[in-house]
Amino acid sequence: MNTHGYGENIVNKQFTAPDDLGGNDDELSSCPSWRFTTRATCPAPTSTATAAMCAAIAGPLHRSLRRSYCVLERQDAALWALIYATVEEERGGAAAAGAAATGARSLQRYPLELVG
User: Fold this and answer.
1) I need a surface site. Which of 2, 25, 66, 80 has the fewest CB within 10 A?
2) pLDDT tens for each residue of the chain, 116 residues long
3) What does the alpha-carbon distance between residue 56 and residue 72 come to, in Å, rounded to a whole number?
């Protein structure tokens, strides 16, 4: 992370085309952001190495997720909105309630035929 600037690189992902809405890049970045910035992964790490990794990566991943959600918000996609809401809530962010409402609204619009 220190040698190759991973923290800076993750914040600037999709920098050349931030609104390229293919979905794969969003999933590959949003899911780790959720895992490494919430208590789900790093509540009380079991090793010193894990604790150091959590401390080093949480900030850059959160900034990356916040930057991405500024673009993804327009999609009204439940997954991205709820991941962002969860991370923001744990970090005390004011945007958590709005993102949670977006996620709930998106789920309410799913056709019943697709719910199984």
Assistant:
1) 2
2) 778 877 777 777 766 555 555 666 677 777 777 776 666 666 666 778 877 877 788 888 888 888 888 888 888 889 889 989 988 888 887 889 999 999 999 999 988 888 76
3) 25
